[in-house]
């Protein structure tokens, strides 16, 4: 009888999969095989930060948003494809990289904001550490070495990112250490692509910004989908839409060693969120939750 039950259980597991060992819903890792990227994803969203090998092309702290269909993790497959075809992940394989970053904050990052300008780091991330890892949650830290943000003001940045399953948002905690000034204004936000029919929703709050726009990189394969990007920082002090800087920004003054915390989100109209009204409504809900949690 026991043998028969064991056989039955083995057959059941072969058909349904082992429920005690579910497939991971999150991942994050350095990608030395592809220009030192640092990639992350969950079962809904994906993105990457640029590493040392890309410095100069570009040197940028911005988040490069990848769009994808909900479900499985795709980054490792896309990078494997890119080893044979450098433009692989610019073509649609159930999602793709169609978001233009260049030298910008991309889909959500922060930099010092001094004298009405964004003060870019001198390098891309130069160190990474995975602090926590499970099937549903991964936490990593990226280090940006000290650079001169403005004359006499030197700054370094440690970026902590938390990625959880089943969420369109990641949590970002940026810690700035600086000398040469008692306080520093930091701008967190994202790139505005003015030629992409961008719809901006200020959401009646200085602590949240969201946009809905056409995909911004048409150079490899035209993309007819739409992208939503958002940032939520409940304890911010003001926000700024700058055509001159091509950015939407949330501003906060900090002292050296202080951490700013914010949520960054993205979505794709070919997946579950089809229109700007749904996306903007989600941002309001995330903002309310962030305020109550804070």
Describe this structure in words.
It is built from three helices and 18 strands. Residues 5-18 have low confidence and may be disordered. The strands form three sheets. Strands 8-9-10-11-18-15-14-13 form an eight-stranded antiparallel β-sheet, with helices on one face. Strands 1-2-3-4-5 form a five-stranded antiparallel β-sheet, with no helix packed on it. A five-stranded antiparallel β-sheet has the order 7-6-12-17-16, with no helix packed on it. Helix content is 14%, strand content 42%. It has 294 residues and is mostly beta strands.
Computed structural class: mainly beta
Structural domain tally: 1
CATH level-1 class: Mainly Beta
* Strand line-up across the major sheet: 8-9-10-11-18-15-14-13
Q: Could you give a short account of the major beta sheet? A: 8 strands, antiparallel
What order do the SSEs take from the amino end to the carboxyl end, as H and E? Answer: HEEEEHEEEEEEEEEEEEEEH
Q: What coarse outline follows from CA principal-axis ratios?
A: globular
| Rg from alpha-carbon coordinates | 20 Å
**Straight-line distance between termini:** 56 Å
Strand content: 35-45%
| CATH fold node name | Beta-galactosidase, Chain A, domain 5
Q: Residue share in helices?
A: 10-25%
User: Which CATH architecture?
Assistant: Distorted Sandwich
Low-confidence stretches: 5-18
């Amino acid at each position: 009888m026991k043998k028969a039950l064991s056989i039955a259980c083995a057959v059941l597991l072969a058909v349904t999969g082992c429920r005690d060992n579910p497939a991971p819903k999150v991942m994050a890792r350095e990608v030395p095989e592809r220009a030192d990227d640092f990639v992350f994803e969950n079962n809904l969203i994906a993105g990457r930060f640029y590493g040392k090998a890309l410095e100069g092309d570009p040197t940028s702290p911005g988040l490069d948003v990848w769009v994808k269909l909900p479900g499985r993790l795709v980054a490792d497959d896309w990078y494997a494809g890119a080893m044979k075809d450098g433009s692989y992940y610019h073509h649609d394989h159930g999602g793709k990289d169609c978001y233009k970053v260049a030298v910008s904050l991309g889909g959500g990052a922060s930099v010092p904001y001094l004298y009405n300008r964004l003060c870019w780091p001198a390098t891309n991330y130069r160190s990474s550490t995975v602090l926590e890892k499970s099937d549903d949650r991964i936490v990593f830290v990226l280090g940006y070495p000290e650079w001169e943000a403005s004359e006499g003001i030197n700054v370094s940045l440690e970026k902590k990112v938390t990625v959880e399953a089943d969420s369109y948002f990641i949590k970002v905690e940026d810690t700035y250490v600086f000398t040469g000034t008692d306080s520093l204004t930091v701008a967190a936000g994202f790139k505005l692509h003015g030629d992409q029919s961008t719809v901006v929703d200020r959401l009646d709050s200085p602590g949240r910004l969201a946009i809905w726009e056409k995909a911004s990189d048409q150079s490899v394969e035209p993309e007819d989908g739409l992208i939503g990007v958002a940032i939520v920082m409940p304890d911010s002090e003001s926000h700024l839409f700058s055509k001159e800087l091509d950015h939407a920004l949330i501003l906060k003054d900090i002292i050296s060693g202080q951490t700013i915390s914010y949520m960054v989100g993205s979505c794709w109209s070919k997946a579950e969120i089809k229109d700007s009204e749904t996306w903007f409504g989600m941002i309001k809900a995330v903002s309310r939750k962030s305020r109550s949690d804070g």
